Structure prediction request, 85 residues.
Amino acid sequence: MSAIKSARKLIAADPACDTARTLSQLVLALQSEEVFDLAKLYELDLPDFDLALGILSEWRLARYYAGKAKLFDMSYQVKSLSSST
Prediction:
């Protein structure tokens, strides 16, 4: 399974968890070409850190990958949830 698809599933399963928020912030930064604090990746446990690296790799290799849009949408929803709490 691709990292993008795995991240989307992880975020959808528990959008309020720290990992989902970090991955969502990463995706939003990649999409908007804004700054992302790499130190946040080091706070992830190893499997989630590897997932984040997979997202970076897939994002770079397949910039127009169709699954990216779904992940971006889910990440934006998480950001909206975070803002309202």
Summary: The helical segments are 3-13, 18-32, 39-42, 46-61, 66-84.
